[in-house]
Amino acid sequence: MNIFKKTIISVFASLFIIGSVNADQIKIGTEGAYPPWNSKDASGNLIGFEVELANELCAIMKHECTIVEQDWDGMIPALLMRKYDAIMAGMSITDERLKTINFSQGYADEVASLAVIKGSDLEGMDTPEGINLSLGGSEVKKALKTITSALAGKTVCTQTGTIHQNFLESGDVGSVNVRTYKTQDEVNLDLTAGRCDVALAAAVAFTDYADKSGEAVVLVGPTLSGGAFGNGVGVGIRKGGDDAIGKRDAQLLKDFNKAIDKARKDGIISKLAIKHFGFDASM
């Protein structure tokens, strides 16, 4: 193949890549099974805090957005395979995830909590209201010791591939009998069915379920943040590269950060958080 032909092919290839990357059209992946962060209504439409926030951010960025559903355990792999451009799925910003993808600044806090069925012997656990594992100190150590003792011999249920599973398997609360599930709905159902002694997830995931189902699910122990629980929830985006899509990913990260700044300043995030969570979870 001569140099002229090689050049023509190279130009057409570049045009094809650039033409396939429309900066104004992006896809956002969400789970659709983690209310009130994201879920589906009776007609199968995606709803929830992050679905509404995604639409607000896209309007600010002047992007035309499509929100698509993706199972949690395939969320990051599908992003890397370029099935969509960003993740908004209650995904906490952790050091481990940052090895693989980038995150925008956080747009909401996600404190975790243990939950049991009312009447459990774990009710009334004597701990502080909330602990941030990143702070350390005697109060954190005391709370972790209490939780370790409370969970000994118990079956703790949680969603697979989450910060909650990471915490339970971190050793911070000893050796725990962990049972994992594909979705939070399955965790909730087995907790109420008595197949779990206690469960761990975002506190709002349990309160939302209790409110909507009428089940006697109650939070116990302290709310948990920091450490294995990360630094808030952000938009997951591929790490930028030198090709057209990589450069677009780098720009998209900047766009999301600017849009989150504006949405926070304008009170949009606070308003949506209060609507869906019952309190202001904005960062």
Polypeptide structure, described:
It is a single chain. It contains ten helices and 13 strands. It has helices at residues 3-20, 49-61, 75-80, 95-98, 138-151, 163-168, 184-192, 203-213, 244-265, 268-277, and strands spanning 25-30, 39-40, 46-47, 64-69, 86-87, 102-103, 112-117, 130-132, 155-159, 177-181, 198-202, 217-225, 236-237. The relative contact order is 0.19. A six-stranded mixed sheet has the order 8-12-7-11-9-10, sandwiched between helices. The protein has a five-stranded mixed sheet with strand order 4-1-5-13-6. Residues 3-21 have low confidence and may be disordered.
The coarse overall form would be: globular
**Major β-sheet, in short?**
6 strands, mixed
Can you list the strand order of the major beta sheet?
8-12-7-11-9-10
* Cα-based radius of gyration, to the nearest Å: 21 Å
**Termini Cα gap:** 57 Å
Order of helices and strands: HEEEHEHEHEEEHEHEHEHEEHH
Helix content range of the residues, please? 25-40%
Unreliable stretches covering 5 or more consecutive residues: 3-21
Derived from helix and strand composition plus strand pairing, the structural class reads: alpha/beta
Number of strands: 13
How many helical stretches? 10
Instruction: Return the average pLDDT rounded to an integer.
Output: 91
Strand content: 15-25%
